[in-house]
Design brief:
The structure is a single chain. The protein is built from 11 helices and 8 strands. By secondary structure, the chain is α/β, with parallel strands linked by helices. Strands 3-4-2-5-1-6-7-8 form an 8-stranded mixed beta sheet, sandwiched between helices.
Length: 268
């Protein structure tokens, strides 16, 4: 299953959510690849990788010069692999963006390694439309990451309108499957919790499941130590929140596998 974490702006918690979900998937016994599609490379460094030691990264994949399998490195925990990024990824831009093939560079790259993993998670950047589009086009599930701010719901409409219209133009379909509202503090304004208000409105807009992820200083420590919250403080409030989200993903994945087996659709 390929899962893309997306939002059009930075600071919402995409990287943290991607890493945390990967960690809990690994703890449940799955093989996981994280693709860092952000030139800032926060996922790469957040998993303890020294960018200066990397010779090949997602820049080379997106320029179609190197196969994805040739840049993958081991993560800090067993069964977690990383397709790392560096700032040079910013240079991998297309002069034109008019064909379906332009949106499926990443999807085609993933096809060559997909059989080796149970889950492939993609962390997308803010702003860089080229990478967001490729991340969305490759995904089986799209998870939008929202903060509890008053304007956060605009992110849903931006993705659905701006990217949805483009996808329709080139013959692809955009489906946002769920939303995570991160950095929920429990703070109340006039007796109401802004994070819960955003969660409820997002559920109405999407018609899909939404999740609250509490704010925690522990997230800083996960990046400092280069480990997901699943392997640093899994019993913390934020850890339990990501675990619940991950368990729902696992249920969907296992149900899909069961149905495919019953129908004889599994790969040999």
């Amino acid at each position: 299953m390929i899962i893309t974490f997306a939002h059009y702006k930075g600071g919402t918690g995409k990287t943290t959510s991607c890493i945390s979900t990967a960690g809990f998937l690994v703890k449940h016994g799955y093989k996981v690849l994280i693709i860092d599609l952000d030139p800032q490379a926060n996922t790469t460094t957040g998993l303890g990788v020294d960018k200066e030691t990397i010779t090949k990264n997602m820049y080379h994949v997106m320029n179609k010069r190197v196969d994805l399998k040739n840049i993958i490195i081991a993560g800090p925990i067993e069964n977690l692999h990383i397709a790392p990024s560096k700032q040079e990824l910013e240079l991998a831009k297309l002069s034109k963006y008019q064909k379906k093939a332009d949106a499926e560079i990443l999807k085609n790259a993933i096809a060559k390694v997909e059989a080796y993993y149970d889950f492939i998670l993609i962390d997308t950047p803010p702003v860089h439309g080229h990478f967001i589009i490729n991340g969305l086009a490759a995904a089986d599930k799209v998870i939008i990451i929202l903060d509890p701010g008053i304007f956060s719901l605009e992110g849903i409409e931006t993705l659905q309108n701006a990217f949805g219209n483009f996808f329709n133009k080139i013959g692809l379909k955009l489906n946002i499957d769920a939303a995570l509202i991160t950095k929920s503090s429990g703070f109340k304004l006039f007796g109401k919790d802004p994070a819960k208000e955003v969660r409820d409105e997002a559920a109405i807009l999407l018609g899909r499941q939404t999740y609250l992820i509490p704010y925690s200083d522990l997230i800083y420590n996960t990046h400092l130590w280069g480990l997901p919250i699943s392997h640093l403080k899994p019993k913390s409030k934020v850890g339990k929140a990501y675990q619940r989200f991950t368990e729902d993903i696992i249920k969907e994945y296992e149900t899909k596998k069961h149905v495919e087996k019953e129908l004889g659709l599994e790969d040999d």
